[in-house]
Amino acid sequence: MREWRRAVVAVVGLAFAADRRRAWFAVVAWPICGVLGTFSSLWLKLLVDGAAGGDRRQVLVAAGLVAVSASVALSGFFISLTAMTRVREEVDREIDKRLIALTGGVLGVAHQENPEYLDRLELLRTGRGELADVVSALSSFLLFALRILVTSALLVSVFPGLLVLPVFALPSLVLTGRAQRLIQHAEERTAADQRRALHLFDLATGPSPAKELRIFGLESTIAQRHRDLRRAVDRQIAKARTAAAVREAAGLLVFGAGYVLAVGLAVREAAAGRATAGDLVLALTAAAGVRDQVGGLAWTVGSLAAGKKAVGRYLWLVDHAEVVRRDAQAPGSGPPMLAPDRLADGIRLSGVGFRYSADQPAALRDVDLHLRAGSVVAVVGENGAGKSTLVKLLARLYEPTSGHLEVDGIPLRRIDPASWRARISAGFEDFVSYELLLREAVGIGNVAAVDDDRAVTRALHHAGADEIPDQLPDGLATPLGTSWEGATDLSRGQWQKVALARAMMREEPLLLLLDEPTAALDAETEHALFERYAAAARAAGGRSGAITILVSHRFSTVRMADLIIVIAGGRIVEAGTHAHLLARGGLYAELYEVQAEGYR
Ligand SMILES: Nc1ncnc2c1ncn2[C@@H]1O[C@H](COP(=O)(O)OP(=O)(O)OP(=O)(O)O)[C@@H](O)[C@H]1O
Ligand SMILES: [Mg+2]
User: Fold this and answer.
1) Ligand number with the minimum distance to the CA of 364
2) Is residue 524 assigned to a domain?
3) 381 lines ligand 1 (CB under 6 A)
C-alpha cells in the first residue's frame, strides 16, 4: 500500500510539475463531467413522471436538464479530454527532462554500464510512455468510482432491491482485471524477445551493420530470426488475448443474468403500482450503465497495475541517484572540498579494489600506488586486465569497493565530484563522435572556450591534428557526421584525433586520462604524438603538478613514461621505468620482447 501511495504521489507530482493549471483542470473536470452524464437517468425519470402526471413545468424543467447536462457533459468531456492529452504530453516531456537529469546527474556511470541495472534503465527509457498513461488512468479511476457510487445511489433511491446489480457486476470486475493481467503477463514474458526482435530489426535496417551483413551474407539469417521471434511473441500474446476474452465474456454473462433479474424486479414493482413509469425508466437506463462503469473501473485498475511497474522503475532511478549521492559523502567527513589548484604530492591509492557487481570477480584488487605529481604514467596489460577500470576510478566514474584514493592527502571522496571533474580531462578509445561543427566537437572539451578558435586550433595542434581543418570545406565551421545535410564525415582515425583534441582543450588539468585514445592511429603517428606530448606534459607538470595517465598497448609509446605500471588479473604485478622493468626480466620484458620481435 505504501508503494502504491508513493507511486501515486510521484505521478501526480509529475503531472502538476509539468503543467499545473491543466493538471488541475484535467483531474477535476474530467471526473465531474463524467459524473454529470450519470444523472441523466434521473432527469429522464422526472420527464416521464411529469408527462404521466400532466405536469408541464416538470416536463420543461426536466427536458432542460436533460439537454443542459448532456451538452455540458459532452462538451466538458471533450475539453477535459484535450486538457488531459496536453497534460499527458507535458508529463512525457517532464519525464524525458527528469530522466536525462537523473541519468546524467548520478555521480558514477554504474547505472549505465552495470548489466544488473542496464535492463531496468532500458525498460524505463523505452517504456516511459506508460508513466504518462498513469496520469489519465488515475483520473479515469476516480471517474468510474464516482459514477458507480452515483448510479448505485440512484438505483437504491427507486428500488432498494436493485443494489444487487452492482453485486452481479463484481464477477465482471474481477474477471476483467484477471483478463488484463493475462495480457500484461504475456507482454512481460515476451518483453525480452520483443527487444531482441527490435535489435534484429535495427541490425537488418541500420546503416552501421550494413557492411558486415553483406560480407557475411547474414541478411536472410537475420530476417528469419526476426520473423521467428515475432511469430513466437505474437502467438503468446494472441493466446493471452483469447483467454482474456473468454474471461470477460463469462463476467458479462453473469452481469447479463443480473440485469434480466433487475429489469424483471423493476417491471414487477411498476406493474403492481409500487413504482412510477419514471422509476422504471431510471432503473433501466442506470442499470445499463453499471456494466460499462464496472468494466471501465476494471480496465483502469489493470492499466494502473501496469503503470505501477513503470513508476517503480522511475522511483528506482530516483532512489539509486540518492543512494549514490549519499554514499559519495564519506560519513562524518564534513562538507565537500574543492579540488586543489595544483598537485604537490600526487595521487595515492591504498588497497583499492573494485568489482562491477557482487556476483562478478574483482576487476581490480589490492592496488597500492603512488602517482607522483608532474609525472607521465603508462599503464599496460592484456585485454581485460583492469586498465580502464583503474582509469574510471581515478575519474570517479565509480567508487572503489574497497580501499581509498587520496589527492594530495585529501580523500577523493571528500572532494566535490563536479570540482574534481572540472580539473581532469580524458580521451577514451570508445570516444564519442559528436555530430557538431568541428569547432564545437573539439571546443566542448572546455565548454567555456567552445567558441575560442585559438584555443580550438591549439588543442588540434596538441592532438597532432593541424591538418583536419585544412582538409574540410569550411575549416572549423564544417559540420561533421552523416546526420546533417552538407556535413562531412571523417575517417575513424580523424574522429579519434578530434576526440583527442577535445581532451586537450582543458589547459593544465590536474589529471589527464588517456585510455588508448590513439588506438585508431598508426604506431608511428602515435609515437611522434606522445613524444611531443610527454615533453609538454612534463613542462606543464612542473608548473601545476599535473599527472598524465596513458593506457596503451604499444610499447614504443609506453617506454617514454616516467613510471610504467603492469596490470594482470586486476593486480599490479610490476611497476617501474622502462629500463628497470626490462632489467627485471618479468612480464613487461616478455611482452616488450614479443612486440619488438614483430618490428624487427
Ligand atoms: N561495465 C562493466 N561491467 C561489468 N564488468 C566489466 C565492465 N567493464 C569491464 N568489466 C570487466 O572488468 C574487467 C577489467 O576490464 P577493463 O575494461 O578494466 O580491462 P582493460 O584492461 O581496460 O582491457 P582492454 O585492454 O580490453 O581495454 C574485465 O574482466 C571486464 O570483463
Ligand atoms: Mg580498456
Assistant:
1) 1
2) yes
3) yes
